[in-house]
Amino acid sequence: MRLPLVAATAILATALAACGTTEEASDGSSESTGATITLTDSRGKEITLDGPAKRVAATEWNAAEYLVSLGVEPVGVADVKGFETWDSAVELPEDVTDIGTRGEPSLDTLASLDLDALIVTDGLTGDAVKQIEKTIPVIVLPGGKAGEQIDQMFANVDLVAKATGTEDEAKKLREDFDDKLAETKEAVADSDLAGTTVALADAYENGGSVTVRPYTPTSQLGTIVGELGLKNAWADVQGLEPDAAYGLAQTDVEGLTKLPDDVRFWYFSNDTETDPFRVTLKDNTVWTSLPFVEGGDVTRLPDRIWMFGGPASMDQFLDAVQDLAG
């Protein structure tokens, strides 16, 4: 449940118009000529909507969060229970329809919703998208873009805003995020956290074996850590191979011995599953002998901050950092 749909990085094309069908003017700019909205998604595909999309569904949780943050109530979301377990930044409408899994939405359910548009990420590809597009406009967003995560997040938000006629709300989201980031950076600079080294991670347990997922500097949260003036400990760990979309890597408990002794280890978990660091590794001598574990510099961040979410989730992470800055 914690994983976004992993796919190859796609570059989000600039939307052709905020409102209205676009035509190329003599000076190379775009101009609006009607009531329809024409935009281009991450596939480079041009999509035309009859007007601002009102009845919208989303397969990926970050897209669902974008919609709610923009003031658009999605009529359908994939894996509603999972969303509500992992993402507390926004509340879905009580009557939202569960459209199936994020990787395999129900075509019958989608057909019953009379959708103006379906928003998916590039993890949902191939025949599923082609089948859905026969009756519903599909807008494909990149899941992420390692090293450019914040810009990509807001490019995604802007595209969803253009499709739904909520550009003003998107602008406000960016302004609020920038203000929160600056406020948190100042709080960090004025605290004991200033200049410290942080290792951000989550983990999962399988048959007693623990896999740790480092949030490297090219991940969305890793990017924010860098913006706050904190050092990302994973940057100097050899052998990590972060993926091109999300900037995540994998290691094991022995890999944690490569972290510096003075690191602050921050991690995510959830009460719906086993906390590997508190439970599975509690008697593991490699884990318990790590200097930052012995020194009590291990912090479980608040549950239900969606690590791959939109601006609202990132605001929650910034609030958590401010709390740690004290």
From TrEMBL:
Instruction: Spell out the InterPro entries in the cross-references.
Output: ABC_transptr_periplasmic_BD (IPR002491), Bact_iron-sidero_bind (IPR051313)
Q: Does the keyword Cytoplasm apply?
A: no
Instruction: Cite the Gene3D superfamilies for this sequence.
Output: Nitrogenase molybdenum iron protein domain (3.40.50.1980)
- Assign the protein's first listed, main location to one coarse class: other
Give start-end of the signal peptide. Answer: 1-17
Query: Fe/B12 periplasmic-binding domain location, by residue?
Result: 55-326
Family annotation (SUPFAM superfamilies): Helical backbone' metal receptor
Q: Does the keyword Signal apply?
A: yes
Gene Ontology cellular component terms for the protein in this record: outer membrane-bounded periplasmic space
Q: Which UniProt keywords apply?
A: Signal, Transport
Q: Which PROSITE patterns match?
A: FE_B12_PBP (PS50983), PROKAR_LIPOPROTEIN (PS51257)
Return the Pfam families for the record: Peripla_BP_2
A GO BP term, please? iron coordination entity transport
List locations, semicolon-separated: Cell envelope
Family from the record:
Belongs to the bacterial solute-binding protein 8 family.
Q: What is this protein called?
A: ABC transporter substrate-binding protein
Species per Swiss-Prot/TrEMBL record: Aeromicrobium erythreum
